[in-house]
């Protein structure tokens, strides 16, 4: 897998992850909205399934080892990709997703103007952004040249600041509706008292 820049969307793996979101989520809603919760769960599931598929001939104890070694790194990259998408939306008011369509892979830009994100989503993304800045983290150590690592760190810190500011924004109507629906689901159903019709 190759990379030609410091962002996730400047890497083959990042574009593969984004393509999975496009196919499983964005196309189904005609690129009207990007649901961060769904994207996180989709990539979490895809990454885990890919590790299991690659190591399907391994005994259970070795498979557990491979999951524990590979999943944190791959999921961190997924979180960075989603964080980049969310940061773009916060900065510009839309997320531009390029789809390569047809046999000639013609680039087609789609403009997503609604993001659905929860506080838990933001907390998870910010936590991953903080983790990768640890000098002991695999992504931190993956940069061969110090100059590239410094540019990448500046990018990560800028993402972190943008998401922190974004977490203080007033939620969109879509987010408010989602929160209201979740609140209703959590409310216990109260049994109705029998009607007292009285005597005739």
Description of the molecule:
By secondary structure, the chain is mainly alpha-helical. The chain has one domain (8-171). The chain is 60% helix and 9% strand. The protein is built from seven helices and four strands; from the N terminus they run H-E-H-H-E-E-E-H-H-H-H. The chain has helices at residues 12-26, 36-54, 60-92, 119-131, 138-141, 146-166, 173-186; strands spanning 34-35, 95-101, 106-112, 115-116. It has a two-stranded parallel ribbon. A two-stranded antiparallel sheet has the order 2-3. A hairpin with a 4-residue loop joins strand 2 and strand 3 (106-112). The termini are far apart. Residues 176-181 have low confidence and may be disordered.
SSE blueprint and pairings:
Blueprint: H1 12-26, E1 34-35, H2 36-54, H3 60-92, E2 95-101, E3 106-112, E4 115-116, H4 119-131, H5 138-141, H6 146-166, H7 173-186
Parallel strand pairs: 1-4
Antiparallel strand pairs: 2-3
Strand order of the largest sheet: 1-4
Pattern of helices and strands: HEHHEEEHHHH
Helix content: 55-70%
What is the mean predicted local confidence, pLDDT?
88
Tell me the number of helical segments per DSSP (H or I, 4 or more residues long): 7
- Output the structural class: mainly alpha
Count the E strands: 4
Low-confidence stretches: 176-181
Strand content: 5-15%
Rg (CA only): 21 Å
Measured between the Cα atoms of the first and last residue, the distance is 83 Å
* Overall morphology: globular
Q: Tell me about the biggest sheet?
A: 2 strands, parallel
Number of domains: 1
């Amino acid at each position: 897998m190759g990379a030609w820049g410091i962002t996730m969307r400047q890497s083959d793996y990042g574009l593969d992850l984004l393509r999975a979101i496009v196919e499983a989520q964005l196309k189904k809603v005609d690129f009207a909205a990007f649901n961060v919760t769904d994207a996180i769960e989709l990539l979490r599931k895809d990454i885990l399934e890919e590790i299991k598929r690659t190591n399907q001939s391994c005994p259970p104890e070795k498979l557990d080892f491979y999951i524990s070694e590979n999943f944190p790194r791959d999921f961190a990259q997924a979180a960075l990709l989603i964080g980049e998408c969310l940061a773009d939306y916060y900065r510009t008011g839309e997320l531009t997703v390029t789809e390569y369509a047809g046999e000639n892979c013609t680039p087609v830009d789609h403009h997503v103007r609604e993001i659905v994100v929860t506080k838990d989503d933001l907390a998870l993304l910010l936590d991953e952004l903080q983790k990768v800045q640890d000098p002991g983290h695999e992504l931190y150590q993956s940069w061969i040249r110090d100059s590239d690592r410094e540019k990448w760190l500046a990018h990560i810190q800028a993402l972190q600041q943008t998401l922190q500011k974004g977490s203080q924004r007033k939620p969109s109507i879509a987010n408010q509706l989602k929160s209201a629906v979740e609140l209703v689901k959590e409310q216990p159903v109260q049994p109705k008292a029998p009607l007292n019709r009285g005597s005739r």
